[in-house]
Amino acid sequence: MQTSFVFNQARWPGHDPQPGSGGPDIDDCWVVSALQCVHAVTPGARLVGIPAFREAAGNPDDPNDSDGGNLAQIVRGVEGCYPDYKGKLRRLRGASWAEFLRLVDDERRILSVSIVSGKLPVRLQYGFAGAESYHQVSVVRKANRLFANPLAPVYSRFDEVASWDAIKPAVMAYGRAKAGTSGVWAVVFPTEAEMNPAPDPDLTPFSQADLDAAVAACSATLTEAEAKLAEAATRESALRTSLRAIASEASQAADI
Hints:
single chain; 256 residues; alpha+beta; Cathepsin B, Chain A; 2 domains; 43% helix
C-alpha cells in the first residue's frame, strides 16, 4: 500500500482559490482524499486533476460558492476516472465504530472518511476548526495507524495515530451533524489484492479429459511408429541376407 506522502488540496492541479480571498478553497478535500486512496491501492494509476474528478463526479467547481462533495460523488468520481474500481467501492452511512475498526484494522482497507475537523486533536487539524468544519480525510492501518489530512503541508508524511480513539470524536460527530445520530460516514476502498489479483496458478487451457485424450493419441502414434520401425528392421535384415547370398553365388561363379 503506497503511503509515501500526503496529497495537499491547495496545491493539487486544477485547484481554484476563492476569488479575492488570497487563500485556498476548503471544498476540494473530498477529491484529494479520494485520489489519496486510489494512489494507495493502485500506485500505478495516473492521477487526475480536480476539474476532471469533479466532472466525473457530477459536481463541477463553483469558485463563488462552497461546493464540497458527498460519498456518492466520491464513488462516481473514482469510478468515472478509474473504471477498474467499478463495483468495488462501498459507502458507509452511519456505520458503527466496530465496523470501522474491522475494515481498517482487520481487513487493512484504506477509507476516505467524513469528519468534523474541529473535533480532531489540534496537531491533526492543520488550522481547520469550528463547529461546522466538515472535512474529508484518509485513514489506513499498516504497521502503524496512518492519517492523511489534505490540509497537511505539501510532501508531508502521513500522521501516525497511537489509537483510532484519537479521531473517533471527529468521525462520529460528522454522523451526528448530518444524520442526527453517531456513525461513520466513509467510502471503503478495495484492498490491493482485490485490485491486483494473483494470476491463476493453473495456466493450462485444457481440461484433464483433453490432456488424457492427447496422451492416448500420442501413445497410439508412438506404438504405430514402433511397429513400422520393427517392420523396417525386418525388411532390412532380409535384404542383407539376400545380398550376402548373391555375393556368395558371385564369388563361387568367379572360381569356376
